[in-house]
């Protein structure tokens, strides 16, 4: 009997030892018996070798702090509730007139108490406040009507310039995006976001004024201290759930007017005294 062919001997040897016919064959990898490592989650669009997804940063106790602020604001008796911009327009006016009045109230409200803004808007509305009525009004008359709002001379100039732009470019209505709103003379990011909230019922971002800026830093709702309301807006939007963006301005403004005051905050009356990082230092 002739000797077995070399390939057949290798095959029998492998079978007799319990191995696989493919073991040792060039180009066929060995099967590993090691347990597979658990899969690592990556950010969308990232592949192997990318950094593992990190948990989103959140300030400690923020949910409890927020609920307590809601409790303190439940009576809705702060100046912003009774005389804020959302109360200053004529709800029976045509939609484009209503939106214009919202924007004008926001422009007047800068560096001005709600009571003063509300009174100025009432005087303007008694004259039939609209794009056309303001364009027909001379600067001196407009100044007399809106006085004593803060920086009233500058606001006369900005109101006339912005109103002319609205007439020429937007048919008497106001822009429907933050990007276009902030291009108008005298309109900043806070006003633009509030205009989107109130006039267009659209949430494009958080409206941050001095109250929201101050309280967010006191509660440590920002990773590190912010120097401006716009910095605070960016920091809050990184972690605060979007469904709270519209509510947070109204809550914190009233809270800042009544309890968390700029000077001599009323910490003894605050429900957050035991979990506020700033309470013991003030």
Description:
With 282 residues, the protein is mainly alpha-helical. The chain has helices at 6-16, 62-72, 79-83, 95-109, 114-125, 131-136, 139-146, 152-169, 178-181, 189-198, 210-218, 229-237, 245-258. Helix 11 (210-218) crosses helix 12 (229-237). The termini are far apart. Residues 1-29 and 35-47 have low confidence and may be disordered.
Which structural traits does this protein have?
282 residues; mainly alpha; 13 helices; globular
Ordered list of secondary-structure elements with their pairings:
Elements: H1 6-16, H2 62-72, H3 79-83, H4 95-109, H5 114-125, H6 131-136, H7 139-146, H8 152-169, H9 178-181, H10 189-198, H11 210-218, H12 229-237, H13 245-258
Helix pairs in contact: 4-5, 4-10, 7-8, 11-12, 11-13
Q: How much helix, percentage-wise, in residues? A: 40-55%
Counting DSSP E segments of at least 2 residues, the number of strands comes to 0
Whole-number mean pLDDT: 87
* Rg (C-alpha, Å): 32 Å
Share of β-strand residues? under 5%
Summing up helix and strand content along with how strands pair, one would put the structural category as mainly alpha
* N-to-C order of helices and strands: HHHHHHHHHHHHH
Ranges with pLDDT <50 over ≥5 residues? Answer: 1-29, 35-47
Shape: globular
Number of helices: 13
Largest sheet: none
What's the end-to-end separation, in Å?
104 Å
Oligomeric category = single chain
